[in-house]
Amino acid sequence: MSKIIALMPLKANSSRVPGKNFKSLHGKPLFRWMLDKLLICEEIAQVIINTDAQKELEEAGLPDSSKLLIRDRKQELCGDEVSMNLVIQDDVNNSDADIYLMTHTTNPFISLKTLQDAISTFRSSDNADSLFTVNRHQTRFYDKDCGAINHDPDNLIPTQELEPWLEENSCMYIFSRDSFNSTNARIGSAPLMYETNKLESVDIDEPQDWQLAEALAPVFSAE
């Protein structure tokens, strides 16, 4: 069976929601929502947190797990302008796995079942070298000049009959070592798209996202 390492990069600063990675969401630091699921996922052999926030992590409370490895983020990889692919590359170069699963602290509601099903989907594919999660949209889109993009305003068919548009939602990426090394990116040359549940896919980026997460947290914490 192929070895899987989960990568959960985490930075100290957040401009739009200050300190969000360590902020309490329904009684638990945000980063623990995803980390706890990664640690109990039987398919995952190790979880790596590449971070510049070691002190904050310790103060917030880290679980005692032999699967968890904290890596100090190199100074040249710190900052909002650094490509996430460079951070991932540093982890891939310094770990040994057949498959890598990368996710974020800001997607707290991705379920253990979704993690496991995405892994199974990737493993069962004969041709895919990577997988990334998407949101499905079947609605009417316009460009900035009010031009219809994916529909005919003079012929309004039901939205469920429109061609689906799929949005990369950054909730999860799965890729092989060879795939990443060949493209220097988490999405390879032959990827699969994996649709995730709309509520599970909530991404905390803006203050209103945090408000939504607070409303949903009691529901997901009971699962």
From TrEMBL:
Whether Transferase counts among this entry's keywords is yes
Q: Does the keyword Transferase apply?
A: yes
Q: Which CDD domains match?
A: CMP-NeuAc_Synthase
A molecular function (GO) held by this record is: N-acylneuraminate cytidylyltransferase activity
Keywords carried by this UniProt record: Nucleotidyltransferase, Transferase
> What's the name of the protein?
Acylneuraminate cytidylyltransferase
Q: Which organism is it from?
A: Marinibactrum halimedae
